[in-house]
Amino acid sequence: MGYVLDGFKAFFDWIVGSVSSMVNPILQPIADTIPDCSMNITSVVQFFGLINSWFPLDYGVGLIVIYYSILLIFIVARSVLKFIPFIG
């Protein structure tokens, strides 16, 4: 069983290596044009810390994720049901 898992690991490592060797020359010039974005953001961190003390941002982010997940599920279900002849 260990040989099979080692084979799958080697196969996926080979696929990832070959894809990255093909994509890296394309994406490297694009990555080199991105400017350096390291700046001082301590004021932003303090601002969000203050907001988080009044309104829990983790609940807000969680609710937004749940909302868009439900929307995505409805859109996918609606598009799948269009292809069923007697329902769509």
Describe this structure as you would to a colleague:
With 88 residues, this protein is mainly α. The protein folds into two domains: 1-34; 39-88. Helices cover 81% and strands 0% of the residues. It has helices at residues 2-33, 42-54, 57-82. The longest helix has 32 residues, at 2-33. It is extended, with a radius of gyration of 23 Å. The mean pLDDT is 87.
Please specify the SSE layout and strand pairing.
Blueprint: H1 2-33, H2 42-54, H3 57-82
What keywords describe this structure?
single chain; 88 residues; mainly alpha; 81% helix; extended
Which spans have pLDDT < 50 for at least 5 consecutive residues?
none
State the secondary-structure class: mainly alpha
Q: From the alpha-carbon coordinates, what is the Rg to the nearest angstrom?
A: 23 Å
Distance between the termini: 46 Å
* Percent of sequence in beta strands: under 5%
Can I get a quick summary?
The chain has 88 residues and is mostly helical. 81% of the residues lie in helices and 0% in strands.
